[in-house]
């Protein structure tokens, strides 16, 4: 699966999970975790990692707001140092991170 396909799967399943089909994201999370446990972390190029994130839509797609994020500059699924402001094709919202939360954060100055 290439980075574009991974991106479409991650974002599509996350949106479906948050809106009309709770639980549909979990098999994808399990698949990524299984790949990492058997083959090691993804390279940054394999998941189209960028040190900056795209504009928010459903979520603020920053690495620091991803299920895989590990403080201070790490990722459970992507190798090497990761920017908290970065983003990649396997971005997944952490459990409980609701869509459009970024808008409230922006208005409060917490963004």
Topology:
Elements: H1 3-19, H2 26-39, E1 69-70, E2 74-75, H3 101-108
Antiparallel strand pairs: 1-2
Give a short synopsis of this structure.
By secondary structure, this protein is mainly alpha-helical. It is 35% helix and 4% strand.
Q: Radius of gyration, Cα only, in angstroms? A: 13 Å
The biggest sheet, with number of strands, parallel, antiparallel or mixed sense and barrel status, is: 2 strands, antiparallel
Strand content: under 5%
The total tally of domains equals: 1
Q: Residue-averaged pLDDT, rounded?
A: 94
Share of residues in helices: 25-40%
Give an overview in words:
- The chain has 111 residues and is mainly alpha-helical.
- The model has no long low-confidence stretch (mean pLDDT 94).
- It is 35% helix and 4% strand.
- The chain is globular, with a radius of gyration of 13 Å.
- The chain has a two-stranded antiparallel ribbon.
- The protein has helices at 3-19, 26-39, 101-108, and strands spanning 69-70, 74-75.
């Amino acid at each position: 699966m290439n980075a574009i396909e991974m991106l479409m799967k991650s974002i599509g399943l996350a949106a479906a999970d948050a809106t009309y089909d709770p639980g549909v994201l979990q098999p994808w999370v399990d698949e990524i975790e299984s790949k990492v446990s058997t083959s090691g972390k993804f390279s940054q190029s394999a998941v189209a990692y960028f040190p900056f994130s795209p504009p928010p839509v459903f979520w603020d797609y920053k690495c620091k707001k991803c299920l895989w994020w590990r403080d201070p500059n790490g990722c459970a699924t992507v190798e090497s140092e990761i920017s908290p402001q970065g983003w990649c094709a396997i971005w997944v919202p952490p459990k409980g991170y609701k869509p459009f939360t970024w808008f409230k954060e922006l208005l409060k100055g917490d963004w």
